[in-house]
Amino acid sequence: MTLSFKPIAFWLFILGPLTTWALVPADTSSKKISVPITAPGYQISDYASYLKEAITCFRQDSIDKGMMLLSKSIKNITLQKDVTRIMPYQGYEVFSLVKDIADNSNLSPAEKQLGKDFFKLVFTSQPSDKNADKILDGFLKNAPNTVFAKRLKLLTASFKGKSALGTELNRLLKDSPELISANTMKAEMLFDEHKYRECITYCDQILAVWPQYAHAYQMRAKCYYNLDEVDKAIADYNQAIKFFPGYFVLYYDRADCLIDLEKYKEAATDLRLTLQLKPNYSWTYYNLTRCYKNMDMPDSALYFINLHINQNADDGDGYNLKGDIYCDRNEYETAISLYTQAINLEPDRRTFYVDRGDAYYYADKLDDAIKDLQKAISIDKSYPFPYDRIGDCYYQKKQYETAITYHQKAVKADPTYKYAYVGLNLSYTQSGNYLAAIDAAKKAIAIDSTYANALGNLGWSYYCAGKFDDCIKYSYKALKYQDDATYAMFNIALATLAKGETGKAKQLYTGFIKTCKEKKYEIRDGATDDLRELIRKKVYVAESKFIIEHIFEQKVE
Asked: Under the cellular component aspect of Gene Ontology, which terms does the record hold (predicted)?
């Protein structure tokens, strides 16, 4: 990059935080947001006028006047708000250097002249001037070996890429270990290298010198987020917002943290604040959709995902998320159509095929589901869900041995994938291999001791194996973690009947049915199907008929 492009880089970087959103105080309260954005007190046109005059003076060799106007433009806007609080290294350092040259009596005459020559060259070089870099390198090479000169060298190097920074940065940090700009650059480099712990250390050092530096809190928050220390990230975003409440990105990023913590209402508040400060910003509509979807507010979710799609018509994720909303509403055909649109836009996305395959599964289009899930596997063989769902498809088709094969593939892809063990349990139970079924359910429970489905299925496998006490034991454990697990209720009553405790069994059936009616739990056909199976096998026939007719109030054919 030639020097002639550096003014663009400098001032695009600086003007970003100087637009309206940076100057407006944000309403950070949790109440419903209805306060409109007000106009800033400072007029950007005034700032631009000073800058334009400064550039004219530089071009006329009126360097002192140019620096004075440049300094005045910066002072004018920082009177409204200290925008340097949110600036990354380059913007912060440009402001600091201009201020030092204009105001700092500690600089030597040679240093001040060096700074003036630097900014004159920066603001007067033309795109056709191929010698600008050489000129700048020349007088920086001959500059005095001072901290100020090293700051200019580092700033120049920063526009040539990260690889050019190491030597200059290390020299500057050695001479001035508490210099905010150098520490900021070091922290930014470490963050880019994903060295988050080291970045945090430098952020700590920066904040010890300047506790109001919102950018340092923001960097440290991003580090904590990437380290899965979300509560610490939120605490830092809170601090950054405290010191610079008009910066929309802080609310947007804090919303990400809140979504991870499943605090969707708070996240939605932050995202709406983001839109107040920066209308139509990036993926704000998309994330608002996620929040409202998870708050079970599908109408609001659809409103925002439509806004996102209107803004990003070629984004497959938007159609995919909209498909998820319809899938949650059991409108599978509409969901399938939306997933298809997502696939047409991005035909190599594994998740799109997985989601459409899942919708086909629930729509009872099992062959279409298997086809999509196989496609997902061809894209990424390491993901366990498609294997597991194919196993579920074959289970529904009553092809249990094939189902077992795919559930085993899911376990091979991820031995901690608890759902696949439940799938194995069901298929082994249907195949009559109760010992294998029991073993599979126990492996799921070893991964998650609170997994109600695994506990309940283990209870049923024990029932099928004739171990009625174990059935009762694990069915009660399932109810402990899922109080609407009605299948577990009736397995307890059934196993009690199978033990010959007919009076107690009748009491249990009566009590469980009462609970289901009071709490409006669904009573599935399986509750009576199991009793009818006892009648078919000629076991406890009279008792089973009594329970069906007098407790369930159904006819026995």
From this structure: cell outer membrane
